[in-house]
C-alpha cells in the first residue's frame, strides 16, 4: 500500500490522543479532497452503515413510493399492502434499467420500461415476458435487490445497503435507544406532515458539512439568528456511538415562541432538528470528494399556525445559506493544497471531533479488511449465486486485470 494512501488513513504516523484541555488535531485535508478516499467511503460507510432517510408519514397509503440516491446508489422505499415499508435498489434484475424514473408516486406494481419485467410491491418478480419458454429460470431468484429498512419508535425510516441477508452492522450498535430519547417525549410525531423539501448544491466535501453542523463555536461570528433559536452560552453536545445530541437551555421567551430545539446528528450524514411547530430532516449527500448536496425535508405541525411555522422556517433558511458560504470557502482552501489540518477545541468542537473519530475508525476497519483480502470490498454489491460459474470466472478475470493495472499504485 502506498505511503500516500496510508497517510490518508492516518496509518503512517500517529498523533497521541490529547488531554481534554489540550487542542486536538483534526482529520487531514486529504480526507476531504481525495478521490481515493471518497471511493473508500462509499465502500466502508455508505454501503454498510444505517442511514436516516425520511419519515413514514410520507408513505401513508399502500403503493406509495419515494426514490432516493446516495453516492450513486439509487433506491426506492415503498409501502406494501400489509402496511410495512420496504426498499429495493432501483435496478431491474434483468438488464439493470431503473424501475422508476420519477421521484415519487403510487403503484400497484413496478414495471420496467426496457423489457417489460414487472415486480410486486414486495420486490418479487411477477412477470418476465417469454421467460416461461425457458427451463431452469427461477422467478424467486430474480426479484429486485432488497435493501434493509427499519422504522424507529418515532416513525423515522432508516436504510442499510449491505447486500447480506442480515446487515453486518446492527442498527442498535450505533443508535440503540436514541429514537426514544427523553426530550422526544414532549412531541407527537404523528402531528407533523411534510411541508416541502429542497436541495442546496455546493463545492464542498460532505464531511466539512458535518463538521460545520456539529459545533456552534462559529455561531457568534457567522449566524446572528442562532441566539433566537438556542442559547449559545449553554450549548453543548452529548455524543456516543453513531449519534451527537445538541443541547442547550431554552429561555422562557424561546419556549413561548416554540423555539426550544431538540437536535441530533446521526452518523454518517443525517440530522433531525425537532421543534414544537417544525421539523427539519437534513441529509448531506456526497457526489465526489468536493461536491455535495444539502437535502432538506421540512415538516410542519398540522396544529400550528402559519406564523408559528414561518418564524422558524425563515430562521433556518438564513442559517442554511450562511453555512453554504462557510463550507464552500473552507473547501476551496482545502483544495488549494496548503492547509493540512488545524487544532480543534476539545469542548467547543467536541461534536466534529466525535464525528471524525467515528469516521476514522469506520474507514480504518474496512481498509484493513480490504488490505487483508487484497481487493476492494463492496458490501452493497450483488452476490452471485453458486450456479453462476461462468459469471464468476468473467468477474475474476476483470478483477485480475484491475489488480494488475493498479498494482504499482496500490502495492497490495
List keywords for this structure.
412 residues, alpha+beta, Naphthalene 1,2-dioxygenase Alpha Subunit, Chain A, domain 1, Rieske Iron-sulfur Protein, seven-stranded antiparallel sheet, 19 strands, 29% helix, disordered N terminus, disordered C terminus
Describe the 3D structure.
The protein is of the alpha+beta class and 412 residues long. It has three domains: 8-47 and 191-362, Naphthalene 1,2-dioxygenase Alpha Subunit, Chain A, domain 1, CATH 3.90.380.10; 51-168, Rieske Iron-sulfur Protein (3-layer Sandwich); 387-412. 29% of the residues lie in helices and 25% in strands. The protein has helices spanning 3-8, 35-46, 171-175, 206-213, 219-222, 226-229, 252-256, 306-336, 350-373, 389-410; strands at residues 24-25, 51-55, 64-70, 73-79, 85-89, 104-106, 110-111, 118-119, 125-127, 146-151, 156-160, 192-202, 236-240, 243-247, 262-266, 270-275, 278-288, 291-301, 343-344. Strands 2-11-10-5-4-3-6 form a seven-stranded antiparallel sheet, with no helix packed on it. Helix 2 crosses helix 9 (350-373) and helix 4 packs antiparallel against helix 9 (350-373). The longest helix is centred in the last third of the chain and has 31 residues, at 306-336. 34% of the residues are buried. Mean pLDDT is 89; it is low at 1-19 and 404-412.
Amino acid at each position: 500500500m502506498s505511503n500516500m494512501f496510508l497517510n490518508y488513513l492516518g496509518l503512517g504516523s500517529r498523533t497521541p490522543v490529547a488531554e481534554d484541555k489540550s487542542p486536538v488535531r483534526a482529520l487531514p485535508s486529504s480526507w476531504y479532497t481525495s478521490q481515493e478516499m471518497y471511493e473508500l467511503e462509499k465502500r466502508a460507510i455508505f454501503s454498510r452503515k444505517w442511514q436516516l432517510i425520511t419519515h413514514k408519514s410520507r408513505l401513508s397509503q399502500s403503493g406509495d413510493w419515494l426514490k432516493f440516491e446516495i453516492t450513486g446508489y439509487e433506491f426506492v422505499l415503498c409501502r406494501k399492502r400489509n402496511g410495512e415499508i420496504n426498499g429495493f435498489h432501483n435496478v431491474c434484475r434483468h438488464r439493470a434499467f431503473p424501475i422508476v424514473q420519477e421521484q415519487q408516486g403510487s403503484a400497484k406494481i413496478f414495471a420496467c420500461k426496457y423489457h417489460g419485467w414487472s415486480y410486486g410491491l414486495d420486490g418479487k418478480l411477477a412477470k418476465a415476458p417469454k421467460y416461461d419458454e425457458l427451463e431452469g429460470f427461477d422467478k424467486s431468484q430474480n426479484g429486485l435487490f432488497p435493501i434493509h429498512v427499519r422504522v424507529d419508535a418515532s416513525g423515522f425510516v432508516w436504510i442499510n445497503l449491505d447486500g447480506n441477508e442480515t446487515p453486518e452492522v446492527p442498527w442498535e450498535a450505533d443508535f440503540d435507544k436514541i429514537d426514544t430519547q427523553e426530550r422526544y417525549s414532549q412531541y407527537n410525531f404523528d402531528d407533523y406532515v411534510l411541508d416541502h423539501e429542497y436541495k442546496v448544491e455546493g463545492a464542498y466535501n460532505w464531511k466539512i458539512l458535518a463538521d460545520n453542523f456539529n459545533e456552534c463555536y462559529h455561531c457568534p461570528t457567522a449566524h446572528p439568528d442562532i441566539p433566537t433559536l438556542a442559547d449559545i452560552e449553554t450549548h453543548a453536545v452529548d455524543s456516543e456511538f453513531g449519534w451527537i445530541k445538541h443541547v442547550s437551555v431554552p429561555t422562557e421567551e424561546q419556549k413561548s415562541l416554540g423555539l426550544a430545539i431538540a437536535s441530533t446528528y446521526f452518523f454518517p450524514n443525517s440530522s433531525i432538528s425537532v421543534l414544537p411547530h417544525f421539523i427539519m430532516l437534513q441529509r448531506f449527500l456526497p457526489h465526489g470528494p468536493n461536491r455535495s448536496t444539502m437535502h432538506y425535508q421540512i415538516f410542519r405541525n398540522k396544529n400550528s399556525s402559519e406564523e408559528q411555522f414561518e418564524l422558524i422556517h425563515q430562521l433556518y433558511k438564513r442559517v442554511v445559506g450562511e453555512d453554504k458560504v462557510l463550507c464552500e470557502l473552507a473547501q476551496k482552501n482545502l483544495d488549494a493544497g496548503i492547509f493540512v489540518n488545524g487544532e480543534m477545541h476539545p469542548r467547543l468542537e467536541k461534536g466534529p471531533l466525535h464525528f471524525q473519530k467515528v469516521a476514522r475508525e469506520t474507514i480504518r476497519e474496512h481498509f484493513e479488511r480490504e488490505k487483508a483480502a487484497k481487493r476492494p470490498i463492496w458490501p452493497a454489491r450483488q452476490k452471485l449465486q453458486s450456479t453462476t460459474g461462468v459469471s464468476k470466472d468473467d468477474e475474476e478475470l476483470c478483477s485480475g486485470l484491475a489488480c494488475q493495472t493498479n498494482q504499482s499504485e496500490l502495492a497490495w
